[in-house]
Amino acid sequence: MSFQGQNIIPAITNMKDYEKMLNSPYEYGVFLDLHISTLKNVFALAKKHNKKMFLHADLVQGLKNDEYGAEFLCQQIKPYGLISTRGSAIIKAKQNGIVAIQRAFIIDSNAMKRSISLMDKTKPDYIEILPGLIPKIIKQVKEETGKEVFVGGLIETVEEANQALEAGASAITTSNIDLWDYYKG
């Protein structure tokens, strides 16, 4: 399974990688670690290149990651989708018609229970699990929520990426250029 035909969703951490993504066949990508002052320009450029970009709301420098920050992002920046660990940001994205991705760090069984409980309340469109190396967790979250699952974090090889995809992940979010290149062909 893939997300809109993509096994990889390039995660952008710098402008050099952003340029590479803009010139790639990938339609979807995710911005990490952007400064608030650059948001309008990078999203305008993405739109010009017909790219649909998710924005990790928790990592926007200069913006508080609360529901007011999420409201600003939805109304002023209008990303294709918003990624957040915060339930209030997910709810705000959905209220504004923006694709909502709940990010969850599953480090133990308690984190799993809390995350599933939060997802039951926020009803995100998609879920992103970190770290994405545990096939059992991918299957369990997908079964318990009925949502498509993205995975990220610590996936460094094609073999690890394939294991995540075989476990049911729809896509892998990664800043690893080698994985971008491997899966784009």
Automatic annotation (TrEMBL):
Keywords: Glycerol metabolism, RNA-binding, Transcription, Transcription regulation. This is Glycerol uptake operon antiterminator regulatory protein. It comes from Halalkalibacter kiskunsagensis. Coiled coil: none annotated. Regulates expression of the glpD operon. In the presence of glycerol 3-phosphate (G3P) causes antitermination of transcription of glpD at the inverted repeat of the leader region to enhance its transcription. Binds and stabilizes glpD leader mRNA. InterPro entries: Aldolase_TIM, GlpP.
